[in-house]
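Supplementary Note 3. Input sequence used for the single-chain structure prediction.
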Amino acid sequence: MNEHLQTANPDIYAAGDCLGDPMYVYVAAYAGGLAAENALSGVGKVFDLTALPHVTFTDPQIASVGLTERQAREKGLRVQTSLLPLEHVPRALASRNTKGLIKLVAEEETGRLVGAHVLAAEAGEVIQEATLAIRFGLAVQDVADTFHPYLTMVEGLKLAALTFKKDVSKLSCCAG
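The predicted structure, written as discrete structure tokens, is reproduced below.
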């Protein structure tokens, strides 16, 4: 199968579990739509899982998207990371559940976000913003400069982005 989901027979396209891992329903749906569009229109869209979020529904949840620090370095990227314990996220404090952390991986030169990893009660919800940032090539500064509602868990992504340049433990509420 090629990057357009064509099999060895160029008139037959593959989708769903026959693609192999990862076997998520949302990957199967994406591949099915892409294969159908490529087969019917010949546009040649590429099957791309670069910004595929993964969520493990444990307590706390584990969610990630993009590359780990190790994977990025193995690909030859020079990266920097930020690590934010949930004790610095106001929502985690308000809900009295500070078990967990947020880790961001960014290219050193450009600041482009290449990975995000969240261990938190609502990690599956939080990871979506990082998924969009990675898909559209945003930098951690773009995340830091974006409005995040106070007292939401996703505000933790902004704080983790700020951690690249600031000590967030010294910031007041809603500071940037």
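The longest strand covers residues 113-120. The helical segments are 25-41, 69-74, 90-94, 123-135, 140-144, 155-162.
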